Each structure stands twice: as structure tokens, then as C-alpha cells.
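hi! just following up on the protien thing from before. the input was this:
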Amino acid sequence: MKPAILDRLRGVQKAGPDKWLAFCPAHPDQKRRSLSVAQTGGKTLLHCFVGCASDAIVAAVRMTLADLFSEPGVPPTPSPQIIATYDYHDERGTLLFQVCRLEPKDFRMRRPDGAGWTWNVKDVRRVVHRLHELAEAERVYLVEGEKDADRLVSLGLRATTSPGGAKGWRRDYAEQIARARRRGDPRSRRARPRLRAAGRGGSSGGWRGGARAHAPGLGRA
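and the predicted 3d structure came back as:
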């Protein structure tokens, strides 16, 4: 298979086994084909005799340098795309950070910086999901992941999770929920929220209505 970049170049001519010449798209190239394209070991090598850099050449045809290293006939790996975002607020409703779900499947965290987003949460306070909605909650469902928490909230329940799921759980998260419940009710100073791990493995996917056996303290499946 020939390199994919050849389909985006003008005046392509065969110059030998796995070698081609074409007009360079990174500079005005009308009469003399100054771009050499070679394929070896699944890599595409570019050389402009005028001196254009490879990154300028691929940018001119809306490709990236990574595309040059794809195996012949195999489409380049797509760039990750955000398919869902989950906001994390403090007790007052101030947005602290977001967890982003990406496709291909991955999760990354980012924080607002006043002009957009910064893709790290260094020095940002970590809180549980939907913390600002847990005030005076009698029961809180602890689930594995933001999607499951949002599903239970859509059913009229109070639910939360931690950033990173079960692996990201920290001791102070339970106290955050306890403080949220006490907010506005000084009589419940010693009260702790009733937490339940919903469904098997902490997932609400197999949960069916009806709250059973809500034990005080923190419960996880």
C-alpha cells in the first residue's frame, strides 16, 4: 500500500521502488517536483529539496507527523474525543474540576483556569461527585462512577462517587459527605450519612428500585 499522504499531494510521480516525487505543498512549487516521499518499514519519509520541514509539509495537507508512522493500509489512530464531562463542585456549588470521559476509552481530569481549561488538577481540592447536592441527605448511594451516580439522581435519589472510582477513594470523602448532611442542621452535629453501595460491584446498572438495609457509616460492595 502506498503512503496515505500521496493522495493529498499534487503531481505525484513514481521514482523507484517505494519512492515518489511530488510538488511540495509547504511552498510555491509549480514547475519542479521538490518533494521526495519514501516508504520503509511502515514509516513514510519526507524530504523537501528546498528545505521545508516535515511538520510544515504534513500540516499543509491537514495531517500530522504521527500519520507518517502508521502501518501501510492501517488508518491513523484517531485523536481522543471527549464524549462526556462530569463536574465536581464544592459545598457552595463552585466548580473545582471536571472528569472527562474520552473515546477511545480513557478518563482525564481538568480544572477551569478563567480562560478555558488546564489539563491537570495540581493543588486543586478533591471532592466527591455532587457534593453540593448532598445537604441534609438522609441516605446517600455510593456507586462506582459518575454515570451510575447521575442515573440514580435522575430517579430522585441522592448519589455520589469519587474521582477515579473505588481506586480513588480517600478517607476524607466520607467526612465531606457527613459535613454536607449536617449543613443547616446543628442538631445533627454527630450524625453520619447513611451510605449504601448500590448494585453489585458498586454499580447501579443492576440496581432495581427499593431502598433496603441502609446501615449507618460507609458501606461498599
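The chain has two domains: 4-69, 81-202.
The longest strand covers residues 81-89.
cheers
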